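Lab meeting, item 3. Inverse folding demo.
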């Protein structure tokens, strides 16, 4: 009789509701999948007819900023959430004050809470941004690299060195970015639209790709994140991706100005995205504008969802629960048919994994065993309740959820100290 590390009995699979399946996990992979397996296992789980899917993936989280809202007044929040997002740059400048008190010692406590919550809610992979600039210095990077090590085998963290305050307008930021990559950051992060001129936007993009080439790393950039249809940093990024041959390793985030693009320009950008093999991460719950998701999907552009923020100057809520993010997006995007819900589910699992370059991320034999056992029988009910999964498996290992709960409870909240700027 076959013996597995983990055997899941009576699992309901997406698009295969006619019967239940057994899933055998061994050596970190999905070793067998059938209506019934004659087998035993070290760990036996009964899905009881509920849904089992790939685990959840979060391709966009400002992890160095989580739980910093108590350090701030609400001025940045009001400006960023203004109806037309015309004060988005002002909001970012106001929010930057929190970084004057950045220190790895308190950032890591906040980070641990957020990452443990991700594990509890079935999120096993995060692309996590750490600000790199004159105020933040490298404190956020240090904290995220530490968390990456601490949560290895539970939640995989891709650390993004993120030039939040610019590279041209911020003296010394480019050198700090290089230091962050030398320390071991996984992704080069930029925000070109924050620069003052079109020439500086182009230079910002060039610096990021120079670093990406030097360290052989992917690129993530927050582009056109304001209510200005004249912003063109998404276009500049796509063109540079093509020029550098970085197809499939370049990811755009937000692109909120896309909501205001005239149709001919939108079609041009879509053509560039497809030629660049470049995905878009959208976070419609954290701002009044968002990328044109339906149009992008219709053109087969890779689109996925991100958490973006947790209780910081830009968003007051958040539990690092990607099912909750998809539930919110269903309303914000009016994606409420069953077919829409399936797409939304892909946007927090397989599509998000593709955006992060995770490779063979799927529920099939031979793939890595990153799985969640939910407490609902289908996607509609899973989104309705967006509850904590019964079980979470990362790389063939059953996550100790009680350990994660204890870790969340041990962290101070809010852990960030008060600063003179509040």
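The presenter then showed the designed sequence:
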């Amino acid at each position: 009789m076959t013996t597995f590390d983990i055997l899941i009995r009576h699992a309901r699979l997406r698009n295969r509701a006619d019967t239940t399946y057994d899933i055998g996990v061994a050596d970190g992979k999905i070793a067998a999948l059938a209506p019934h397996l004659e087998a035993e296992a070290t760990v036996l789980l009964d899905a009881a007819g509920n849904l089992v899917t790939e685990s959840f993936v979060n391709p966009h989280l400002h992890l160095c900023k989580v739980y910093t809202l108590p350090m701030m007044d609400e001025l940045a929040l009001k400006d960023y959430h203004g109806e037309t997002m015309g004060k988005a740059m002002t909001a970012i400048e106001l929010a930057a004050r929190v970084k004057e008190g950045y220190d790895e010692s308190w950032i890591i406590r906040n980070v641990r809470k957020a990452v443990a919550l991700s594990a509890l809610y079935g999120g096993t992979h995060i692309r996590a941004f750490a600000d790199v600039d004159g105020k933040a210095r490298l404190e956020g990077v240090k904290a995220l690299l530490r968390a990456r090590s601490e949560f290895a085998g539970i939640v995989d963290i891709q650390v993004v060195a993120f030039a939040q305050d610019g590279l041209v307008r911020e003296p010394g930021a480019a050198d700090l970015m290089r230091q962050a990559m030398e320390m071991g950051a996984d992704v080069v992060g930029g925000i070109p639209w924050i620069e003052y001129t079109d020439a500086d936007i182009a230079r910002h993009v060039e610096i990021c790709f120079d670093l990406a080439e030097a360290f052989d790393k992917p690129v993530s950039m927050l582009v056109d994140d304001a209510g200005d249809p004249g912003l063109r940093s998404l276009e500049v990024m796509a063109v540079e991706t093509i020029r550098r041959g970085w197809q499939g390793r370049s990811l755009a985030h937000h692109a909120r100005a896309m909501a205001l693009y005239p149709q001919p320009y939108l079609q041009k950008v879509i053509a560039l995205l497809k030629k660049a093999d470049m995905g878009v991460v959208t976070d419609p719950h954290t701002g009044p504008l968002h990328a044109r998701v339906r149009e992008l999907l219709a053109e087969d552009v890779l689109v996925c969802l991100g958490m973006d923020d947790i209780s910081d100057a830009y968003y007051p809520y958040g539990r690092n629960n990607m099912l909750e993010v998809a539930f919110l997006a269903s309303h914000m995007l009016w994606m409420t048919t069953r077919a829409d819900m399936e797409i939304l589910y892909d946007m927090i699992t397989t599509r998000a994994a593709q955006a992060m370059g995770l490779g063979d991320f799927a529920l099939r034999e031979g793939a890595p065993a990153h799985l969640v056992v939910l407490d609902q029988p289908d996607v509609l009910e899973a989104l309705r309740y967006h509850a904590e999964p019964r079980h979470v498996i990362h790389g063939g290992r059953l996550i100790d959820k009680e350990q994660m709960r204890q870790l969340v409870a041990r962290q101070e909240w809010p852990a960030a100290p008060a600063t003179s700027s509040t």
